Amino acid sequence: MSKVDPKTLMNLDECVINALRLFADPKTKLPKMDFGRFARPLIVGSGNAAATGRIMFADIDAVFADESTYEDRLDAVPDIDAVVIVSASGGKHAPIIAEALRDQGRDIPLVLLTCNKKAEAKEDVDEMIVFPWNPEPYTYNTSTYMGMILSKMRENPKAILRHIRQVVDPALQEFGPHFAGFDAYFILVPERFDLIRPMLSTKFVELFGRQVARDVFTKAQAMHATTLVPSDTELFLSFGEENAWWGAAERRLYIPLPSGAGHAAIMAVGYYVIGKIQAQKVPFFKMNVQAYCKDAKRWFGKELPMIVKYG
Length: 311
Known about the structure:
The chain is of the alpha/beta class. The chain is built from 11 helices and 11 strands. The protein is globular and about 60 Å long. The protein has 2 domains: 6-152 and 286-308, Glucose-6-phosphate isomerase like protein, domain 1 (Rossmann fold, 3-Layer(aba) Sandwich), CATH 3.40.50.10490; 157-283, 3-Layer(aba) Sandwich (Rossmann fold), CATH 3.40.50.10490. Strand 1 (41-45), helix 2 and strand 2 form a beta-alpha-beta unit. It has a 5-stranded parallel β-sheet, with helices on both faces. A 4-stranded parallel β-sheet has the order 8-7-9-10.
């Protein structure tokens, strides 16, 4: 077990700032990928890796799957011409997926997008593209997947960081510290950011489990009976578009996005605000992460580190 004291782990908002500083540094180079070189690739990932893959390959005729569905998708879609595995660590499910795909004997390229030069899956892939990263608490995966998204979107991390300091922080301060005191959070994102919803939802699950309720919808999705049962202890948190319909006025918090924001920007701003909620609530994550990392050996075959560092 790592000697790290879980009480000293950074909160998610600090991790976001560190990631943006990493990518704003001129010395940090993001790989350039030819995202259109395959006609119909199968994009495979677990959790937020799957969501990242959907964002990166949203503009081509890709097929998407996770650790439970990739074999069925490969069998069901005969014209798949490549497989791209998205995995920050290149471990856990990634080597299992890579080996299973290699054993099928299909003559198509197998590509791994990872942050780990020593990824376990490297032996079973034809190509490995490695992205920059920061050491981060287990599950945060902020610099890892943000770097992958930035490699596609080419957004300006300096501008995102400046927006957080000049716009997001004042918006939180104006609303008051009680924004983190709600029992539930109803998050609204613009329609064009539908693909970010799983990443925001998953981050709530990782940090709060079932201790804090959350839902993440676009405005169009929110219209369909999502607020049929009301709650007086729920904050309606909207990113990028003001909420004029849901929740009492005193339970609405609007967080602007930078001009021309892409998925890296809403990921950064969304994670930052969730981190500010984390900083003011009972530290559920820090109280439980050490035991989880130890228990995970039962299903991953090895104890997980509380601070993730790659080769």
